[in-house]
Amino acid sequence: MSASLNRAARPDGPHEKRDRDPRLSLVDTHAHLDLLEQDVGEALREAREVGVTGVISVGINLDSSRKALETAHAHPGVRAVVGVHPHDARHLDRDALRELRRLAGDPLVVGIGETGLDFYRNLSPRADQERAFRHQLELARELDLPVVVHDREAHAHTMRVLEEYAPFGGRLIMHCFSGDLDMALAVLDMGGYISVAGPVTFHNARRLQDIVRRLPADRLLVETDCPFLSPHPFRGRPNAPARLVLIAEKVAELKGVPLEDLRLGDPFTRG
After folding, report:
1. What confidence tens digit (pLDDT) does each residue in 45-86 have?
2. Distance CA 51, CA 53 (A)
3. What span, in angstroms and rounded, lies between the C-alpha atoms of 148 and 266?
4. Computed over its alpha carbons, how large is the radius of gyration of the chain?
C-alpha cells in the first residue's frame, strides 16, 4: 500500500481498450479492493475483459481484512490476504492477533499481510511495528501461508528481521519492491518473490527495471496496489486492477518475451 490511506476516487481517463488474448490470464497479486470508489464488481469485470482473471485483495487492518474476505466470497477469482499494516501496528494486541488467526483459517485466505516496517511515516512506533511484524511472520509460519511484506525506508531492518525467519520456501512476497539488486537476490536466496507495481513503468525507474531484467521471471510477481501507484501513462491517478496489463507488458518487454509467454511466479496456491 502506498503512503496515502485515503479512499481514492474512481480512475479517471479511459482504460486502454484492447481485445483480450485468450491465452492471457494474469493475477493482480496485491490490490486494496475495499479502498476503490469504483464498484468492485465493475472493476473486476473491466479487469477480466483485458485478461486479469484473478485478484488478491489485501487487508491493512482487521476491518479491511474482513472486507477483503467478504469480497473474496462475493466475487469469483478474488482471494484474500489478511493482516495489519505497519501504520496500524500499535493496534495489534492479543485479541486482534486472535481475530487475525480466525480470519486466516478461511480457505479463501491465501496469505498474511500486509505487514512489515514503514520508517518513512512512522504512524506507529517502530517498536510496535517490529513487534507486529514478528507476530505476523510467526502466524504465517504456523499456518503455512505466504507473508506479504511492506518495506518503506527500512530495507536493512526489514532484511535483518526476515533473516531470522528464513528460509521461506516460496512463502515470502516483497510487495512493491523498492530495494536494490543485492537485496532482491537476498530475498530470492531466502525463498521469496519480488513483486513489482506501477513504478516499473515510470521513465525514471531504471534501477527497478534493471532488477526485473536480471531476476528469473518465475520469481517475479506483478501487482497494481490499487487504488494507488497507477502505471504510466496514468501516473498520479487512481489505479484499478485492469491496469495490471500495463505493468505486465512492461515486465514482458524487460524480459524480452511476448506478454502471452511471460511466466510469473505463483505463491498463492493454498493447500
Report:
1. 999 999 999 999 999 999 999 999 999 999 999 999 999 999
2. 6
3. 13
4. 17
Instruction: State the pTM of this model.
Output: 0.92
Helices 206-214 & 181-189 angle (0-180, nearest 10)? 40
Dihedral sign for Cα 31, 195, 239, 88, please: positive
CATH number of the domain at 26-261, please? 3.20.20.140
Length reported for the chain: 271
Per-residue pLDDT reduced to its tens digit, 220-245: 999 999 999 999 999 999 999 999 99
- Residue 206 phi/psi, 5-degree rounding, is -65, -40
Give the domain ranges of the chain.
26-261
d(CA 259, CA 255): 10
- Measured distance CA(226)–CA(240) in Å, rounded: 5
